[in-house]
Design a protein that fits this description.
single chain, alpha/beta, 12 helices
């Protein structure tokens, strides 16, 4: 009978590490890494205007006709029944419906040197309209939050696709080797959940790092498992050195045996090193204690209504300043009925506006002061807008994916500029219509990425964020 030779302690550790290393690799890295360090900075396709993006996601859909899309006809027609081909009823029955026109609950006025019409819903943001580039002809896919939110983040309503932040880090790498390239602040677990900051079929190194979640105060938001409370730095380093020595020996053995997947193992080694460097660097970036009182006041930190989102916006500035490529700042909750989803209570928009208005205005001012707005693109908006008529003859508005507003500010876009338009009721995009794929293509363009070239081969075909559509919106480029 054959009797295998006994393993000594070193051989047991090596073989065990290799076995579990292979399992981990097969689960975490379906595709081979394209370089020894996949997060290393990469050369863009064209000269970039922006180095990074801060996306201020207003989950649920802010009403365009109550904020930045002024429609005087709503005042004149308020209370009258009119025919509307609204997306929800068309999807349900194939035809539109008769509905009661509902005027804005907030008065409009002109602001800034540009004379931009905006409502009193966002008084602090209105002070910065001359920094903003408004896209009034937006339209998108899906009529419900789940599909439209996924489309906003991934370019698909149903299929598992990489999120935009993952595409950006895949295309550009990171500016700071001590931090992830993509961070999502307080992402919701509803309406797509982790898919909204996930990597899908891209290598796992490009997935977003979530910090906090709705329902947890921003001052308690942390990167999970960042610090080991049981071991000091010296012990952590010694443990990592042992694991890395086993990994390197495994790489050497594979190379000597002519085996594949060497770059995957290199990527694992790099990910362990990144995790260790984050332990040293990230806590300082996330700690707001060193900020001046004037800066805290600028963001509304310390005030009940604005403290939470103010902390998120200030954290976004610190992450941008530290070289994170894509930062998503979520204003949402963990339910399937997100924050701005006012079907029966439009005055609730006012409460949400108070929570985000001062922090967002503070962010724009702070970025401008520090010279960061010159190479940072700020993107504000939701997955769709809201209808200009009352839902079920009540006091709220239903979803409107056919015509809504987003704004951009900062690197590469025309300040104090408006592009596109909805019809006279603010319902359907009719002039310079801008699809969500077009917005995706434009944001990538500003980062120096050609959306037609930013592809990844998976399951026998090339995929891209904009699929087979999307055009760069050249008229808004500075």
């Amino acid at each position: 009978m054959f009797s295998p030779a006994p393993l000594n302690r070193r051989q047991l550790l090596q073989s065990t590490a290799c076995g579990f290393g292979s399992l981990a690799l097969s689960g975490l890295l379906a595709q081979s890494a394209r370089s020894a360090n996949p997060l290393a900075p990469k050369i863009p396709h064209l000269a970039p205007k922006a180095k990074r993006v801060i996306f201020l996601f207003m989950a649920g859909g802010v009403s365009q006709v109550d904020s930045f899309d002024y429609k005087p006809l709503l005042e004149k027609e308020d209370g009258k029944a009119r025919e509307f081909n609204d997306a929800r009823n068309v999807a349900r029955s194939g035809k539109g419906s008769t509905a009661r026109v509902m005027k804005s609950l907030w008065k409009f006025g002109q602001h800034g040197q540009s004379g931009k019409w905006a409502s009193e819903l966002f008084p602090a943001m209105n002070e910065h309209v001359d920094k903003m580039c408004f896209l009034h002809g937006m339209h998108t896919e899906g009529v419900a939050h789940g599909p439209s939110t996924l489309f906003l983040h991934t370019g698909s309503t149903t299929q598992i696709r990489p999120s935009m932040g993952s595409w950006v880090t895949y295309g550009l790498g990171t500016e700071n080797e001590n931090l992830p390239g993509f961070i999502a602040l307080a992402p919701s677990m509803g309406n797509g959940g982790p898919r909204n900051f996930g990597n899908a079929f891209l290598p796992a190194v490009y997935q977003g790092t979530a910090i906090g979640r709705p329902g947890i105060p921003a001052k308690e938001a942390k990167i999970r498992y960042l610090l080991n409370e049981r071991r000091g730095d010296a012990e952590e380093r010694a443990q990592l050195d042992l694991v890395q020595s086993l990994n390197r020996e495994q790489i050497a053995n594979r190379k000597s045996a002519g085996m594949a997947l060497d770059t995957e193992l290199d990527a694992v080694v790099d990910s362990y090193e990144l995790a260790y460097r984050m332990q040293q660097f990230a806590p300082g970036v996330l700690d707001l204690a060193g900020e001046s009182q004037e800066t805290l006041d600028l963001y509304g930190i310390g005030q009940k209504e604005t403290d939470n989102y103010g902390r998120q916006c200030l954290m976004a500035r610190r992450l941008a300043e530290s070289g994170v490529r894509y930062i998503q700042v979520n204003y949402s909750d963990n339910s399937n009925n997100p924050a701005w989803d006012q079907h029966s209570n439009m005055p609730k928009h006012g409460e949400h506006a108070k929570a985000v208005d001062r922090p967002i205005a503070g962010l724009l001012e702070d970025l401008k002061r520090r010279g960061l707005l010159e190479d940072t693109l700020v993107w504000w908006g939701g997955e769709f807008g809201r209808n200009p008529f009352a839902e079920k003859n009540g006091t709220g508005r239903d979803h409107d994916p056919d015509g809504f507003t987003v704004w951009l500010a900062g690197a590469g876009v025309k300040p104090g500029f408006s592009y596109g338009a909805t019809d006279e009721f603010g319902h359907m995009a009719v002039e310079n219509k801008t699809h969500m794929h077009d917005l995706h293509a434009t944001v990538l363009h500003l980062l120096g990425l050609d959306h037609l070239k930013l592809t990844y081969r998976y399951a026998g075909r090339d995929f891209r964020l904009t699929d087979v559509a999307g055009e760069v919106i050249h008229p808004i480029l500075a």
